[in-house]
Every structure is written in structure tokens, then in C-alpha cells.
Target: Hsp20/alpha crystallin family protein
Amino acid sequence: MPLVPFEPLRHVENWKKELDRVFNESIPAAFGFNPEFSTPRTDVYETAAHVIAICEIPGLENKEDVHIHVDNQTLKIHGVINRFNEVQEDQMHRRERYAGKFQRSIALPSPVEAEGTVAAYKNGILEVRMPKSRPEQGQRIDIDFQ
Model:
């Protein structure tokens, strides 16, 4: 009687984990794509007067590297993170810091106005503060009653 029960598929889970590791780390990195950062992580909340989006975008060096567009109930952020090779490629053992293009479109909870929107970047965090649109007051229409 064997001490270990017969389980013909017990190694399949290990093979699956190894294949996931290879395809998630090696192949995307070879093509310059990092699925963990291609869309910045974002928090969106609102106050009485503003909708505020806070995005993690570490590595920006110039304000020209990021573009922000506000359109009614959508915030679009896109740009590029440039990294200069500090180490030669043949000496690199592991690369986890992202470099390349990123983009994100975010649906906002309330209509906002582009005019008056301000953005600030500090310590890898981009904060976009957008004023809420004021509901347009309807205008009374007189009826020509005959």
C-alpha cells in the first residue's frame, strides 16, 4: 500500500501557476507592456461643489508628459512615462518600474465644467479638481393664447 494517495493531476496546478507567471512577467515585458500599470489606478469622489479624481502616476517628469481632457461627465487622462536607462540591458535582472504610454477614461458621477478645472501633481499623485456644472434654470415661455 503506497503512503501517498494516487492523484494523477496533482501537478497540473503547479504547471498552471508556472505558465501564468511566464506569460504575465516575460511576454508582456518583452513587448514593453505592463498590464499592471497601463491604466493608472484612480479614486473618484465628490463634494458639494467639486468632483475630485486622484490618480497614481509615478514617474512623470514634465507637465507636458500628461494630458487631461474634461468633457461633461468624462475625464480622460493620457500620457507617457519616460525612463532613461540607468543600467545596461544585459545587467538588468528584474524590471518592475513602468515606462511607456498610459491612458484612462473615467466616468464621473456628476456633470462637470472644463473651465475652472485645476490639476496638481506631487509625489506620484495627480489630483484633478473639477467644478460641478450648475443645473441650467429653465426659462418661462409665455403662451400666445387666442
